[in-house]
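Page 37, top half.
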Amino acid sequence: MLQTIVNGLLIGGVYALIAVGLSMIHGVMKIVNFAQGDFLTIGMYFSFIMYSFMPRGSLPYWLLVPVAILMFLFGVVVFRTTVCRVIGKGDSNYILLTLGLSYLVQNLLQLIFGPNFRSLDISNDLKYSSIPFFGDTLIMTPRLVAFAGALLFVTLVTYFLSRTDLGRAMRATAENTAVAQTLGINVNLVFTIAFSLGTLFAGIAGLLMTPMFLISPQVGTTFSTIAMCAMVLGGLGNLKGAMIGGIILGLVESLSSNYLTMDIAPVIINTVLMLVLIFRPYGILGKGVRHA
């Protein structure tokens, strides 16, 4: 039981990182990015390419820096060329656009890398290394590093939003875009930063998960669903709620996979989501909308 809980907490931290990026985009721009999981896949392929130039058996986690830069720039390009054109023009427009981006990314990746699964060329000793935790409980090193990286980035973005002028501008824009504009805030810049940071988070999650999962063009679809469930579970637009939702789903997935079957884990996750929404429609930390 303890081993299962530890595994769930560690993978839940990575799910939280994806959900926080998705929640940031929704909180500031009031849109849901249905291509978030595919941006994670791009981060995995960026990592795979960079790992291929490293000595066999190594796990150079300093790649966090170049992957983060590449994903942020990728987010800027995607936002400026596509997403910015549908903001404020109805929900159906951004839904169709981000779904189209999802299919486009998947097909481009399949065209470039092929449909076959890929994995990092690292030694089993490193891939399956572990640290004693308590009694017979072990912590897998790649999972621990992934959890630590997710916690680091969530901490940094929390500090950024609360302690910097740009972060405060993003929070003001999330509260009321029209008022933020009257106060002189460059809303277009804020939208660009928010979308790019969300894309960066997805890419970093992809890098951290690359040593643990096989890579394929469609691998991000599952993680996109989990991220959306975590975001809704925690409360739309609430970063702390997204993190809590991600950890809860990681625990639910680990427990159901270990004590039932792996195939039933998605069913249990969606059942938990429905139960929470029945008794708390706005999510764990979400707040209802006031009506005059």
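Page 37, bottom half:
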Amino acid sequence: MPIKRKKEAESQDVFFDDEVYLGIDIGASNLKYGIVNSSGAVIYQHSQSTNASKGLDYMLTTLKRLILNLQDKYPRIKAIGVGVPGIVSLDGNVKLAPNLPEWVDVPLGKFLNNVFSLPIAVDNDANAAAYAEMQIGSGKEFDSFIYVTLGTGVGGAVVINRRLYRGENNAAGEFGHIIYNPFEPLNSKKTYRTGVLEEYLGKEQITVFAKKFIKDRPESLLHTYEKTDPYFISDAVEKGDETAVEILSYVGHILGLGLTTVMNLFDISKAVVGGGVSLAPNLLLESAIKTIKERALPHIAENVKVIRATFTKDSGFIGAALLARDYEKIN
């Protein structure tokens, strides 16, 4: 169904009779949140800087204040969902969030339950996003699919038979931590980050690669842009810049290799790709599909389907709200 979006001033009268759910997506750069009704329609949404550099205590205080303010504004909130970019246990303990300073063994679920009496669902942000796509987005017609989110970091989730596959520690689907380059010198501070896919597909990593790539291409339009991030690369592709086309094709190739690995492992031929980087021209996904058809097992290659997510930038808070909505059913 189409997602309804109402401005804050209009929303309370229009949806007053609905039970509503609060969803929060804690990103490395932005904190996105919104109110969603029982059908998944967005009543209100907003975002602000995460200010992760200010530390854990600041972020927790901000989160508490935000929820209290939204409860005052929307007293019919029935449950709260929070997505976090990291490994989150079933009880809401954030074991590790690589892109958030100080977020190691943070009992976020316990912290929120001590303050609020509502049901609270805390989960990995990619799980939340995949849940949104499965319920009301691009994955609603698939029984099983791989979900990948491309943004500041690279996340993922696996849906099997209409359920999130969670693994032993509720940490399955870490697409960005597939080892892409086993010959990369070991990162002495974070050995688990050595040569992983996120170090090649993250927004900043794409920007650094593009900056190096264009040094020998003085004719490229990218020299005229203030940055070489995915947004400007996409713009140059649309203008027919051959260098930008090569860069985006290469990024799609890396994405395709990662998807091939996961598809072969789980015997799944469908993928939904979200996150800000997924808004790039179709060339990105076309390149990924081409690679999968070349490298995947034949039965995967013959049936492969890779599509853009419905909720590219908003999936985290929408999915978190829907997880909160279904908290009792899935726990």
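Margin note: Residues 8-131+314-330 form a domain with the Nucleotidyltransferase; domain 5 fold (CATH 3.30.420.40).
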